[in-house]
Amino acid sequence: MKVIHFEIPAEDPMKLVDFYSKVFGWKISQWEKEQYWIADAGPKEEKGIGGAIYKKSAEMDKLINTISVPVLEEAIDMVKESGGTIVGEIKDIPHVGRNIMAHDPEGNLFGMLEISEEMKNM
Questions:
Q1: What's the pTM value of the predicted model, to 2 decimals?
Q2: 3-class DSSP string for 6-45
Q3: The sheet that has 50-55: what strands, in order across it?
Q4: Residues 52 and 74 in one domain
């Protein structure tokens, strides 16, 4: 299991879309009609992960790293048993997988993603 995705919060997402596109050459496009922009953070042949920029809210205002997990329910149980807390409910992300947010014992927010078979085969 490893970090597979990052999310950057923004009061003005377009300002950060412009910034990261210009400074690092990232290719950034809006995800459907959401206040969420997918960042292709570098050429495929370079090692690293991609991420996103999202509209900041009271509940979601910190940088978020998402960790891949083989079975989401097992990971949820491990978080709870190890002193973390789960935030919200499992969310299905079409063509991507199932996701949930959590806090570690120090209160740091992170995501966990069980990748769908469709995404694995892309």
A1: 0.77
A2: EEEEECCHHHHHHHHHHHHCCEEEECCCCCEEEEECCCCC
A3: 27-30, 36-40, 50-55, 3-10, 64-68, 109-115, 97-103, 85-93
A4: no
Round to whole Å and give the CA distance between 76 and 81. 9
Q: pLDDT, tens digit, for every residue of 95-115?
A: 899 999 999 988 889 999 999
Per-residue pLDDT tens digits for 18-65: 999 998 889 999 998 889 999 988 777 777 889 999 999 888 888 899
Q: List, in sequence order, every residue forming a beta bridge with 86; answer none if it has no partner.
A: 102
- Residue 94 and residue 115 in contact, taking contact as beta carbons nearer than 8 Å: no
Q: Which domain holds residue 44?
A: 8-56
Looking up tokens 């995705």 gives 5
